[in-house]
């Protein structure tokens, strides 16, 4: 009946969108930041080594990523939830502080720490910040949440923290999606004609002004396509969601609760579904909805990419 279809498919559709959204939230900033740095600032020698290494991450099977996320990462995050959440603020703030310090440092220091190798000299600084966060988070949790953040979430916000939740899925799927988004975005940025950037700098624009006002608009079609392709892969991912989400058919906005995606639901229930039964038909409808969604996402990406290409054609031929 119609009520059965709505009751069964709605939580799975919600879980699919929720998992894809959190994956994009984690993957896109990292992938675009890495693509911009490697194409605009990184030395050619270092780029020739780093780019293949990042692209090789895409070869990791989803079942391996899901296994690590569900059995290793989820219990660790549950034990260190305060630290895990603090890292989302501490690490970006640390990068901004490092950038401000680099700009105000003497020229001899900047020559020793060139921007082309920022990815290497930033790593020890970020590891130090992560270690400090690990040491300080228990005291902060005791001060603000009476030593129990999960209990505070339950008492004050009514959020029941699940060990395998949307946050874990987002990090794991973001790790799986990031290489493809990075590769496509980096190719788009590298494909912008050099004369555009050189001309802007010859007219007095700084490197950052050239990036934001010339390079990114010219590469916008390829970057948009990269993000949409990453979203399409996140929607169709099965094993990571199945192993790291708890597979609970819930409709909740909270990132601390689990969910069930359409792909994971099909993988779990199809072997036991009797052909011709209501459950079998519902699974076929879920598969059809999943196909239509990914088809529409990819079609939308291609249409918007062509429109952006026409809009920015005066800047050159973007990839």
Short description:
The chain contains 13 helices and no strands. The protein has helices spanning 2-40, 44-56, 62-79, 81-104, 107-112, 118-145, 149-157, 166-190, 194-202, 207-236, 239-244, 262-269, 278-311. The radius of gyration is 22 Å and the shape is globular.
Plain-language structure description:
By secondary structure, this protein is mainly alpha-helical. It has a single domain, classed as MetI-like (MetI-like fold). Helices cover 78% and strands 0% of the residues. The protein has helices at 2-40, 44-56, 62-79, 81-104, 107-112, 118-145, 149-157, 166-190, 194-202, 207-236, 239-244, 262-269, 278-311. Helix 4 (81-104) crosses helix 6 (118-145). The radius of gyration is 22 Å and the shape is globular. The model has no long low-confidence stretch (mean pLDDT 84).
Which bin fits the share of residues in helices? over 70%
CATH superfamily name? Answer: MetI-like
- Gyration radius, to the nearest Å? 22 Å
User: What kind of sheet is the major sheet?
Assistant: none
Second CATH tier, the architecture: Orthogonal Bundle
Helix/strand structural class: mainly alpha
Poorly predicted spans: none
Principal-axes shape call: globular
Count of distinct structural domains: 1
β-strand amount? under 5%
Q: What's the helix and strand layout?
A:
Elements: H1 2-40, H2 44-56, H3 62-79, H4 81-104, H5 107-112, H6 118-145, H7 149-157, H8 166-190, H9 194-202, H10 207-236, H11 239-244, H12 262-269, H13 278-311
Helix pairs in contact: 1-8, 1-10, 1-13, 2-8, 3-8, 4-6, 8-10, 9-10, 10-13, 12-13
């Amino acid at each position: 009946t119609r009520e059965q279809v709505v009751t069964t498919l709605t939580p799975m559709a919600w879980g699919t969108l929720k998992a894809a959204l959190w994956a994009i939230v984690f993957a896109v900033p990292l992938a675009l930041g890495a693509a911009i740095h490697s194409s605009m600032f990184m030395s050619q020698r270092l780029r020739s080594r780093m780019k293949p290494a990042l692209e090789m991450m895409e070869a990791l099977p989803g079942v391996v990523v899901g296994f690590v996320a569900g059995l290793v990462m989820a219990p660790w995050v549950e034990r260190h939830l305060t630290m895990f959440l603090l890292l989302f603020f501490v690490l970006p703030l640390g990068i901004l502080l490092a950038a401000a310090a680099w700009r105000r440092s003497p020229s001899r220091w900047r020559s020793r720490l060139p921007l082309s190798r920022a990815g290497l000299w930033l790593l020890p600084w970020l590891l130090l910040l992560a270690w400090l966060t690990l040491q300080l988070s228990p005291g902060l949790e005791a001060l603000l949440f009476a030593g129990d953040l999960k209990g505070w979430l339950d008492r004050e916000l009514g959020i029941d923290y699940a060990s395998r939740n949307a946050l874990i899925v987002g990090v794991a799927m973001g790790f799986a999606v990031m290489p493809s988004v990075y590769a496509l975005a980096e190719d788009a940025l590298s494909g912008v004609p050099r004369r555009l950037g050189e001309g802007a700098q010859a007219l007095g624009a700084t490197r950052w002004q050239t990036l934001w006002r010339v390079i990114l608009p010219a590469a916008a079609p390829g970057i948009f396509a990269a993000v949409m392709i990453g979203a399409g892969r996140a929607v169709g991912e099965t094993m990571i969601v199945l192993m790291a989400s708890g597979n609970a058919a819930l409709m909740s906005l909270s990132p601390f609760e689990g969910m069930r995606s359409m792909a994971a639901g099909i993988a779990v229930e199809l072997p036991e579904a009797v052909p011709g039964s209501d459950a079998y038909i519902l699974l076929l409808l879920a598969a059809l909805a999943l196909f239509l969604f990914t088809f529409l996402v990819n079609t939308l990406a291609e249409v918007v990419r062509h429109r952006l290409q026409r809009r920015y054609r005066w800047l050159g031929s973007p990839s």
